[in-house]
Amino acid sequence: MKNFSWIALVLIFCTTLQSCEFIAGIFKAGVWSGVLIVVLVLALIIWLGAKIFGGGKDT
């Protein structure tokens, strides 16, 4: 059980550190490019949600 806890802790730290590096990279590129990426991702999520849940169907 101790080995499992240790491995889980290491995996959590690895994924957390990678996401922090990604965020740091976005801010190095500039705040506006980060804003643009967020807007594009949100637009993609909304578009996919509309396609999956049947948005725009004629009644």
From TrEMBL:
PROSITE patterns: PROKAR_LIPOPROTEIN
Transmembrane segments annotated in the record for this chain: 29-50
Keywords: Membrane, Transmembrane, Transmembrane helix
Entry protein name: Phosphatidate cytidylyltransferase
